[in-house]
Design goal:
The chain is of the alpha+beta class. It has 2 domains: 41 residues; 124 residues, Glucose Permease (Domain IIA). It has 2 helices and 10 strands; from the N terminus they run αββββββββββα. Strands 1-2-10-6-5-4-8 form a 7-stranded antiparallel beta sheet. A 3-stranded antiparallel beta sheet has the order 3-9-7, with no helix packed on it. A hairpin with a 3-residue loop joins β1 and β2. The protein is globular, with a radius of gyration of 24 Å. It starts with a helix and ends in a 22-residue tail after the last helix.
Length: 197
């Protein structure tokens, strides 16, 4: 085969190979964007790190840290408020709004015996640390909140009593992988709807 034919053949193979690599790169890019979009809508168990024991259901869900343990953002969210001077025991309290997924727009509070709370206005992703829970009483609590940060069940709550709001939040946590030890039915809504208490 003449030299020009070899060069043309080699050049054609390089072009085909280049097209193949461009196609592979495009497929990988699309796949990575799909995975990233899926993560943006994904929720995580906020107690998957650290060491936790079950507490109770009241206005929300009480969890007992066995040692200093991180509390994670359930999903992509914006911290709406954060304070060290709330009326809750120990004063530290924050609330955040989920900005993606099937609970988009819903608001979660985190309270009691906390340190290193995320500041208001911060944007967080699912699994980001938003606070650290300390050992000892009172145990930390989390549940559904209103836009002003008040707990959804506060208008009708009686100390130590389980509320509908707490049960729906418990179902939400159960569906995120929290072990089923809070004695709630897995059936029913996991959204802050229906009666408050």
């Amino acid at each position: 085969m003449p030299m020009g034919g070899l060069v043309g053949l080699a050049s054609g193979r390089v072009r085909e190979s280049s097209r193949l690599w461009v196609a592979i790169a495009a497929v990988l890019l699309v796949a990575s964007l799909a995975v990233a979009a899926g993560r943006a809508d994904a929720y995580v168990n906020p107690f998957k790190k650290g060491s936790w024991s079950p507490g109770r259901i009241d206005m929300g869900v009480d969890m007992i840290p066995n040692r200093r343990s991180p509390i994670l953002a359930i999903g992509a969210a914006r911290i709406l408020g954060s304070t060290s001077k709330s009326g809750w025991p120990d004063g530290r309290y924050l609330w955040y709004q989920l900005i993606s997924g099937n609970h988009k727009g819903e608001i979660v509070y985190v309270a009691e015996h906390l340190r290193k709370i995320a500041p208001a206005g911060k944007r967080v992703d699912a699994g980001d640390r938003i606070a650290v829970a300390l050992t000892g009483y009172p145990y930390m609590e989390t549940g559904w909140a209103n836009e002003d940060g008040s707990t959804r069940a506060s208008p009708c709550y009686k100390e130590g009593k389980a509320t509908h709001s707490g049960e729906t939040f418990g179902r939400f946590l159960y569906r995120l992988g929290l072990p089923h030890y809070l004695d709630i039915s897995a059936k029913g809504s996991s959204h802050p709807t229906g009666k408050l208490c």
